[in-house]
Amino acid sequence: MSPVRPRPAVERDSTPWWDALARHELVCARCAECGRWRWPPRALCGACGSLEWAFAPVSGAGTVASFVVNRHGFGGAFPLPSTVVLVRLAEQDDLLLPGGWSGAPDGAGLTIGLAVRVGFEDVPGDADADPYTLLSWRPA
Ligand SMILES: [Zn+2]
């Protein structure tokens, strides 16, 4: 039996995020009072203290803030090597989103500060689960 790929834990508060990804749209949480972006979503704005926020579209442009090349398997569900990147979005210096990497699996060519664009990985469903979509950053 082949290893089962872990699926995202979708719950009430994150459903709009997963729905946007399925439409190949990137959204982030934004304060309705002061306009400050935040990730991950949380109830309280760190800048103004407001509890009012909503998901809003972002450009999908950013730069690589960090990355990890995984060479050791975690249960065998993912091909190796695989790379995860942390992207600093253009909207705000402290708006950082992790995601997969659609460039070379071994991270070749990746550098801190590299310009990237949002991409999406559609994962097919099966008899037990619906399809879903993940972030997969790509070179700009
Ligand atoms: Zn605020």
Give a brief outline of the structure.
The protein is mostly beta strands. Helices cover 6% and strands 36% of the residues. The radius of gyration is 16 Å and the shape is globular.
Q: What is the strand arrangement across the widest sheet? A: 4-5-6-9-7
CA gyration radius, whole angstroms:
16 Å
Task: Provide the list of bound ligands, each named once.
Answer: zinc ion
**Mean pLDDT, as a whole number?**
93
Report the end-to-end length measured between terminal Cα atoms: 38 Å
The total of beta strands comes to: 9
What would you call the shape? Answer: globular
H/E element sequence: HEEEEEEEEE
Largest sheet: 5 strands, mixed, barrel
What fraction of residues sit in β-strands? Answer: 35-45%
- Output the structural class: mainly beta
Low-confidence segments: none
Q: Roughly what percent helix?
A: under 10%
Number of helices: 1
How many domains, as an integer?
1
Give a structural overview:
There is one protein chain. This protein is mainly β and 140 residues long. It has one domain (12-139). It is 6% helix and 36% strand. It contains one helix and nine strands. A five-stranded mixed β-barrel has the order 4-5-6-9-7. Strands 2-1-3 form a three-stranded antiparallel beta sheet. A hairpin with an 8-residue loop joins strand 8 (120-123) and strand 9 (132-139). The model has no long low-confidence stretch (mean pLDDT 93). Zinc ion binds next to loops.
